[in-house]
Write a structure and sequence with these properties.
12 helices, ten-stranded mixed beta sheet, binds 3-hydroxy-3-methylglutaryl-coenzyme A, single chain, alpha+beta, three-stranded mixed beta sheet, about 35% helix, about 400 residues
């Protein structure tokens, strides 16, 4: 391997849940003007998992088309990034490995640092491929975002999984060095092990995100990164889509540029289409932004895209990718639109029921209700063991 080997994202596929709750239903329940959601935070609906869906079923559903297209040959590592982990010891990726029938000669591990985890997984993958360009790494980022009912965070829930095949000579995006890095010990958002729903200080979390944007951009410049003008678009972590706009304006200001709203719209406008109807998918969010950009843009071949990955707590990374010429032949635009459109709308009462349900902890035999029409389901839990099945 040489430092000149181009490495990056060869394939990208996402999956989301069985159900969807429109923000109009939440607004009606809360007595909130729906404009606060549609315009103020830039969210129209949120993906809601069925009782037999979780990060494993979503992750497997995202990754199955990737394995179907490329085969399992050469995949020697599966990295599963999540912050809605289902087990303190076993990696969720081991279930996905099994559901996808990957060879036993595979290393599987789970990575965590809030929403930043998938970018850590991507960087880990790039390092492995630099070491041996014949290998491929399957990165799966899967999350279910849950806040307390009737809390300000509730409107920013969502769920989705992204699978990326990371290889040498990638068909979609070549990931470049350097990266701009930033870490600060802040309590803006966290979830202690004994809680199902995250705790968050909303305004503090926005400030912490902006501080991280400034920090990564400064480091990126000091590491010899590209100038701002070099980028055709920017994919930000999108806890809600207006956050990308706040972040980009902040980046422009801290880099000494005026915020020309037309230019901001031009740089971000195509990246929000999936996130605004899916909601916060935590680790997957920034890569759903990439999917939306690639699926909708005119030819971006040879153009540079900036990525800003933020995870509360907090760790952030800014890096650049160059879109590979000819990438459009490798997209999954129809599959992605179908994943969004196949979701069944539910009303507020049903959403509340699903939100309140928790898995039994008594070690008994508890089959899950059959709800999902997706390719994988959580069949039940028995003796504290989760049982998954392919439908
Ligand atoms: P809030 O306090 O209910 O809302 O919660 P607000 O009062 O700040 O209003 C939001 C915006 O809507 C404001 O616009 C209002 O003016 C506007 P802004 O001032 O920001 O430009 N507005 C309206 N617009 C049009 N018509 C109306 C109307 N009314 C108000 N009628 C908050 C908002 C995001 C804080 C809340 O949803 C929350 O706590 N969310 C969860 C935390 C979060 O997403 N933080 C983002 C940064 S941290 C992050 O990204 C990491 C994370 O993904 C986790 C991880 O890393 O693991 C969360």
């Amino acid at each position: 391997s040489t430092a000149a080997t181009a490495v990056g994202i060869h394939d990208l596929s996402f999956a989301t849940t069985e159900f969807v709750l429109p923000h109009t239903a939440l607004a009606e329940h809360n007595g909130t003007p729906v404009g606060k959601y549609h315009v103020g935070i830039g969210q129209r609906s949120m993906s809601v998992p069925a009782a037999d869906e979780d990060i494993v079923t979503l992750g497997a559903a995202a990754a199955a088309p990737v394995v179907a297209r490329h085969g399992a040959d050469g995949i020697r590592t599966l990295v599963f990034a999540t912050e809605s982990s289902i087990d303190q010891a076993k990696a969720a990726g081991v279930y996905v490995h099994s559901l996808l029938g990957l060879p036993s000669a595979t290393r599987v591990v789970e990575l965590k640092q809030a929403c930043y985890g998938a970018t850590a997984a991507l960087q880990f993958a790039l390092g492995l491929i630099h070491r041996d360009p014949s290998q491929k790494v399957l990165v799966v980022a899967s999350d279910v975002s849950r806040y307390e009912l009737d809390s300000p965070g509730e409107a920013t829930q969502g769920a989705a999984a992204v699978a990326m095949l990371v290889t040498a000579d990638p068909a979609l995006v070549r990931i470049e060095e350097p990266s701009g890095l930033f870490t600060a010990d802040v309590m803006d958002f966290w979830r202690p092990n004994y809680r199902d729903a995250a705790l968050v200080d909303g305004q503090e979390s926005i400030g912490a995100y902006l501080q991280a944007v400034r920090g990564t951009w400064k480091d990126y410049g000091e590491q010899g990164g590209r100038p701002l003008e070099a980028f055709s678009a920017f994919c930000y972590h999108q806890p809600f889509t207006r956050m990308a706009y706040k972040a980009h304006r902040h980046l422009l200001n801290s880099a000494g540029y005026d915020t020309d709203e037309a230019a901001v719209q031009g740089a971000l406008g195509l990246t929000t289409a999936y996130n605004e109807v899916i909601g916060n998918s935590y680790t997957a969010s920034v890569y759903l932004g990439l999917a939306a950009l690639l699926d909708q843009a005119e030819d971006l071949g040879g153009r540079a895209v900036g990525f800003l990955s933020y995870g509360s707590g907090s760790v952030a990374e800014f890096f650049a990718g160059t879109v590979a010429p000819g990438y459009r032949a490798h997209l999954r635009t129809a599959q992605h639109r179908a994943a969004v459109e196949r979701r069944r709308p539910i009303g507020y009462a049903r959403y509340r029921e699903l939100h309140g349900a928790s898995l039994p902890t008594d070690g008994g035999d508890h089959p899950s209700p059959e709800e999902t029409t997706g390719p994988f389901r959580l069949a039940g839990i028995n003796g504290h063991k989760r049982r998954y099945e392919k439908r």
